[in-house]
């Protein structure tokens, strides 16, 4: 299944939600798996211009796009999504 790197920045509303209900992170992960087939493989909080780095697996670009629009429309996060290719796959592609 295709993998994606999603960089997430919390809005002021998102920070408030996180502070009041830190478990919301896991709830959202479960929700996106159920509703969009997007499975969070790794999730890290980071310091810098983004708050989270997420590595996800999804059936296709459309699923990730729908998920990003849904999450963004809530006003709690802004996302930057990038398709990711594993190194072994890159080597196969180059050798073709």
Notes on the structure:
The chain is of the alpha+beta class and 96 residues long. The chain has a single domain (3-95), classed as 2-Layer Sandwich (Alpha-Beta Plaits). Helices cover 46% and strands 30% of the residues. The chain has helices at residues 12-20, 24-36, 61-73, 87-95; strands at residues 3-10, 39-45, 52-57, 77-84. A four-stranded antiparallel β-sheet has the order 2-3-1-4. It is globular and about 50 Å long. The two termini are 21 Å apart. The mean pLDDT is 96.
Summary keywords:
4 strands, alpha+beta, single chain, Alpha-Beta Plaits
Write the SSE topology.
Layout lengths: L2 E8 L1 H9 L3 H13 L2 E7 L6 E6 L3 H13 L3 E8 L2 H9 L1
Antiparallel strand pairs: 1-3, 1-4, 2-3
State the gist of this model.
This protein is of the alpha+beta class and 96 residues long. It is built from four helices and four strands. The radius of gyration is 14 Å and the shape is globular.
Number of helices: 4
Shape: globular
Work out the count of structural domains: 1
Rg value: 14 Å
Helical content class: 40-55%
Mean pLDDT comes to 96
* Secondary-structure arrangement, i.e. CATH architecture: 2-Layer Sandwich
Pattern of helices and strands: EHHEEHEH
Oligomer: single chain
Strand order of the largest sheet: 2-3-1-4
Query: CATH homologous superfamily - what is it?
Result: Lrp/AsnC effector binding domain/regulation of amino acid metabolism (RAM) domain
Largest sheet: 4 strands, antiparallel
């Amino acid at each position: 299944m295709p993998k994606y790197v999603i960089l997430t920045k919390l809005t002021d509303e998102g920070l408030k939600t996180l502070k009041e209900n830190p478990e919301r992170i896991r709830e959202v992960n479960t929700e996106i798996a159920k509703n969009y087939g997007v499975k969070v493989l790794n999730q890290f909080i980071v310091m810098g211009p983004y708050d989270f780095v997420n590595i996800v697996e999804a059936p296709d670009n459309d699923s990730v796009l729908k998920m990003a629009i849904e999450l963004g429309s809530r006003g709690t996060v802004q996302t930057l999504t990038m398709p990711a290719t594993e190194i072994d796959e890159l080597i196969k592609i180059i050798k073709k």
